[in-house]
């Protein structure tokens, strides 16, 4: 009782697939990260990055903060920066849904839209750090990103499956979720299979990337991922709609991508317990054509 908002981050529900998984010998569980206060898995990393930067003296209340984001990290950073009375500028692709932009502004952040996608947004933020004295959390290289999942997401999955998890499936963007969760789960049982999800060539799925080599997140360690499954944009859209209609899980397209991969995996296995990350909520995509 009497928990603060920050203390409500994490301990998200793990719910069993009742419809989409048709292999009776495999259990598929969805970890509902949209139940975090800011509506996505990124609350975990955002809190970890801000809290540790404050505690270590890297930033203070006079710092000018900036971060490039495709959406969810920005919302989480805006929410938590507001709680700590920090000023932050968030740079994102101009293709972002208006719900995302408006949510960040509601939390008090300055939002800058960039015409050259997430790569251009990252370059813009880096230039501000170099030339104008801004501080960037640089989620793509920040150890506190993946450590948030080592300290929370991984232990929750291990606890809630009573150590029976055999496969973990996660979309890959900054790769913080898969890096941290893999690190923890592999320490408990090295045989747990870690499956990353990427888009097929030419597919655009918000929150999932196949990075050009020069933009590959520095926190990414390929040895922590046992297998990568690729999903198409059409598959991700179709599965996102099915998640809502058939499982009652209202989520974004990256969750549809992860679910597509998890179901491919389930169809191959003779037995197992799969946990797949549902990254966020669907209400921040309503102005797009995702659910039309």
UniProtKB/TrEMBL annotation:
<dbReference type="Pfam" id="PF00291">
    <property type="entry name" value="PALP"/>
</dbReference>
<keyword id="KW-0808">Transferase</keyword>
<keyword id="KW-0198">Cysteine biosynthesis</keyword>
<protein>
    <recommendedName>
        <fullName>Cysteine synthase</fullName>
        <ecNumber>2.5.1.47</ecNumber>
    </recommendedName>
</protein>
<comment type="pathway">
    <text>Amino-acid biosynthesis; L-cysteine biosynthesis; L-cysteine from L-serine: step 2/2.</text>
</comment>
<dbReference type="InterPro" id="IPR050214">
    <property type="entry name" value="Cys_Synth/Cystath_Beta-Synth"/>
</dbReference>
<dbReference type="GO" id="GO:0006535">
    <property type="term" value="P:cysteine biosynthetic process from serine"/>
</dbReference>
<dbReference type="GO" id="GO:0004124">
    <property type="term" value="F:cysteine synthase activity"/>
</dbReference>
<feature type="binding site">
    <location>
        <position position="254"/>
    </location>
    <ligand>
        <name>pyridoxal 5'-phosphate</name>
    </ligand>
</feature>
<dbReference type="InterPro" id="IPR001216">
    <property type="entry name" value="P-phosphate_BS"/>
</dbReference>
<dbReference type="InterPro" id="IPR036052">
    <property type="entry name" value="TrpB-like_PALP_sf"/>
</dbReference>
<feature type="binding site">
    <location>
        <position position="72"/>
    </location>
    <ligand>
        <name>pyridoxal 5'-phosphate</name>
    </ligand>
</feature>
<dbReference type="InterPro" id="IPR005856">
    <property type="entry name" value="Cys_synth"/>
</dbReference>
<dbReference type="InterPro" id="IPR001926">
    <property type="entry name" value="TrpB-like_PALP"/>
</dbReference>
<keyword id="KW-0028">Amino-acid biosynthesis</keyword>
<feature type="modified residue" description="N6-(pyridoxal phosphate)lysine">
    <location>
        <position position="42"/>
    </location>
</feature>
<keyword id="KW-0663">Pyridoxal phosphate</keyword>
<dbReference type="InterPro" id="IPR005858">
    <property type="entry name" value="CysM"/>
</dbReference>
<feature type="binding site">
    <location>
        <begin position="173"/>
        <end position="177"/>
    </location>
    <ligand>
        <name>pyridoxal 5'-phosphate</name>
    </ligand>
</feature>
<comment type="similarity">
    <text>Belongs to the cysteine synthase/cystathionine beta-synthase family.</text>
</comment>
<feature type="domain" description="Tryptophan synthase beta chain-like PALP">
    <location>
        <begin position="8"/>
        <end position="280"/>
    </location>
</feature>
């Amino acid at each position: 009782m009497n928990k603060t908002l920050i203390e409500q981050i994490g301990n998200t529900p793990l719910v069993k697939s009742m419809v989409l998984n048709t292999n009776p010998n495999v259990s598929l569980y969805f970890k509902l990260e949209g139940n975090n206060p800011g509506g996505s898995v990124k609350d975990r990393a955002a809190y970890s990055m801000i809290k540790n930067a404050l505690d270590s003296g890297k930033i203070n209340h006079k710092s000018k903060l900036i971060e490039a984001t495709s959406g969810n990290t920005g919302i989480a950073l805006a929410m938590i920066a507001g709680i700590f009375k920090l000023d932050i500028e968030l740079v994102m692709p101009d293709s972002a849904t208006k719900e995302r932009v408006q949510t960040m502004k509601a939390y008090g952040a300055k939002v800058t839209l960039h015409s050259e996608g997430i790569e251009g947004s990252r370059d813009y933020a880096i230039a501000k750090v170099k030339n104008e004295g801004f501080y960037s959390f640089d989620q793509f290289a920040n150890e506190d990103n993946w450590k948030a999942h080592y300290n929370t997401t991984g232990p929750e999955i291990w606890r809630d499956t009573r150590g029976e998890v055999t496969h973990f499936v996660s979309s890959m963007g900054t790769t913080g979720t898969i890096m941290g969760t893999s690190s923890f789960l592999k320490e408990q049982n090295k045989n747990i299979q870690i499956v990353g999800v990427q888009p097929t060539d030419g597919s655009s799925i918000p929150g999932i990337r196949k990075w050009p080599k020069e933009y590959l997140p520095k926190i990414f360690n390929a040895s922590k991922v046992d297998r990568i499954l690729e999903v198409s944009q059409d598959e991700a859209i179709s599965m996102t709609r099915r998640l809502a209609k058939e499982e009652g899980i209202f989520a974004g397209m990256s969750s549809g991508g992860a679910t597509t991969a998890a179901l491919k995996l389930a169809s191959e296995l003779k037995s197992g317990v799969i946990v797949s990350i549902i990254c966020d909520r669907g209400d921040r995509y309503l102005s797009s054509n995702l659910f039309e």
